[in-house]
């Protein structure tokens, strides 16, 4: 995810966890939590299976070993 792009424009995008836990593999980005100016935003991902919402740091979501944009 390029830093120059507005995080709000990513809402609704689909994501796949490369190492699923508790059978939760597919997620939808539903929101962005912006913290202090020095911290990167946290993305709110909702599990398609359980409906639980998880905050994920922007740097973690960019890690191709952990997340894939789209559903696999």
Structure characterization notes:
- The chain is mostly beta strands.
- Helix content is 7%, strand content 44%.
- It has one helix and five strands.
- A five-stranded antiparallel β-sheet has the order 4-3-2-1-5.
- A hairpin with a 5-residue loop joins strand 3 and strand 4.
- The mean pLDDT is 88.
List strands and helices in order, with pairings.
Blueprint: E1 14-21, E2 24-33, E3 42-47, E4 53-57, H1 58-62, E5 67-69
Antiparallel strand pairs: 1-2, 1-5, 2-3, 3-4
What labels would you give this structure?
single chain, 72 residues, mainly beta, five-stranded antiparallel beta sheet
Low-confidence stretches: none
Classify the helix fraction into a percent range.
under 10%
Number of strands: 5
Distance from N terminus to C terminus (CA atoms, Å) equals: 18 Å
Could you write a compact summary of the structure shown?
The chain has 72 residues and is mainly beta. The protein has one helix spanning 58-62, and strands at residues 14-21, 24-33, 42-47, 53-57, 67-69. A hairpin with a 5-residue loop joins strand 3 (42-47) and strand 4 (53-57).
């Amino acid at each position: 995810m390029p830093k120059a792009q507005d995080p709000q424009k990513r809402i609704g995008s689909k994501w796949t966890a490369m190492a699923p836990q508790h059978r939760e593999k597919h997620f939808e980005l539903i929101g962005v939590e912006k913290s202090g100016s020095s911290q990167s935003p946290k993305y709110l991902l909702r599990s398609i299976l359980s409906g639980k919402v998880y905050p994920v740091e922007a740097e973690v979501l960019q890690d191709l070993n952990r997340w894939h944009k789209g559903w696999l």
